[in-house]
Amino acid sequence: MAQLSDDCFAFGGPMLSVDDAVGLITTRVNAVADLETVALVDADGRVLARDIAAPLPLPPFTNSAVDGYAVRNADLPQKAEQALPLDGRIQAGGLAQAAIKPGRTARIFTGAPMPPGADTVFMQEDVRLDEVGRIVLPLGLKPGANVRPAGEDIPEGHVALRAGQRLRPQHIALAAAFGLVRLDVVRRIRVAVFSTGNELASPGGPRAVSQLFDSNRFMLMAMLRRLGCEVSDLGILRDERELLANGLKQVAGDHDLILTTGGVSTGEEDHVKAAVESIGSLVLWRMAIKPGRPVAMGIIGGTPLIGLPGNPVASFVTFVHVVRPTVLALAGSLPEPLLPIPVRAAFTYKKKIGRREYVRASLRRAEGGTLEAVKFPREGAGLLSSLVETDGLVELGEDITSVEPGQSVGFLSYAGLI
Ligand code: AMP
Ligand code: MG
Hints:
Layout: H1 18-28, E1 35-39, E2 52-53, E3 63-64, E4 68-71, E5 82-84, E6 86-90, E7 105-108, E8 120-123, E9 128-129, E10 135-137, E11 147-148, E12 159-161, H2 169-177, E13 182-186, E14 190-196, E15 200-201, E16 212-213, H3 216-226, E17 230-237, H4 241-252, E18 257-261, H5 272-279, E19 281-286, E20 289-290, E21 294-300, E22 303-308, H6 312-330, E23 341-345, E24 349-350, E25 356-365, E26 371-375, H7 384-388, E27 392-396, E28 402-403, E29 408-413, H8 414-417
Parallel strand pairs: 6-7, 14-17, 14-18, 15-16, 18-22, 20-25, 23-26
Antiparallel strand pairs: 1-13, 2-12, 3-11, 4-7, 4-8, 5-10, 9-10, 19-21, 21-22, 23-29, 24-28, 25-26, 25-27, 27-29
Helix pairs in contact: 1-6, 3-6, 4-5
The structure holds adenosine monophosphate (AMP) and magnesium ion.
The site of adenosine monophosphate has 18 residues, from helix 3.
């Protein structure tokens, strides 16, 4: 299992900034070293375990980029359009029977190999036939036009995919273009997920009048799966320190990460911190982030634990900013920093200096085509509707104290977060 050094940090001290907290966590988790081999069709979302150098150039041979007529550079029209007799026809997948002769042109199709001697291709739309059936080539084409030289995309031997790359469809396409059928990837990160709280009932089970159905666990499991994790659903733990401690201890040995939600605040019935301290050590538990704030990070038997807050929006936001980078670090993934896109604020907002805040917002196109972020009208961290009915989060950095309409702000789309 991934090991985490358990030297204690920032405990009880001032709130850590998001960057410092994440830096602390991610530099202290060791990447999982176990690999497995998967078929290309199963590789989406997995983390590549080894560099891949191009075993062949791409494209593998010089070919035509268009449907048209291939000629030698020496036969390009110089002063006036020029008519050349047609000699030869090369289809995609075919081969020229012979080198192109001086003063001749060959019919060629997109992706067909260039006949020996030919350097340039005229698009079929740019030529015409004369009365004796010759191909009339216009002036103005540059030597080498409409030809894709072998290796122009990727030369043979070039390291085209790096270890740590989280594979997306385009990376899989590249591996396929190299003729590969299997890839070595990091094994899935194993995450144990618990909800905590006496007020929680599992969907499908009975619900007492003072209970609500557990929504966070299903949100977090879905987010973890999107990050390629293997998830153990460990249900709901009651608000009792010992029960929590036992539950956490049991799963530490065979998971790379333990994730809990709820019970990390300072109320008397928030027992996650105390439970972690009783069986492991707490690394930090206060982060300057809203929604969120209390986020616990600890180590139990060498396995990292992240305790997220219980309010659904706080849980979502802290997952994105704390759990996501931790999972990526555990998988040895190359960093994938979230880069907010500048949009125009269509709202007023006041905030405390020194903490980072995320405002739920929808995008709309303003006059002139600029994108505007419209803030969700209510702010409660428990409002699931605020996540469901918006497009993403406006990130307000530690230094910002207010936002005025028209100001440029950074926007993170939900689509790009996970
Ligand atoms: P806590 O962080 O335990 O103090 O919980 C804060 C708020 O979030 C309370 O109103 C809880 O009922 C609610 N909450 C905690 N856990 C969950 C969960 N798994 N799903 C939905 N709401 C939750
Ligand atoms: Mg609770």
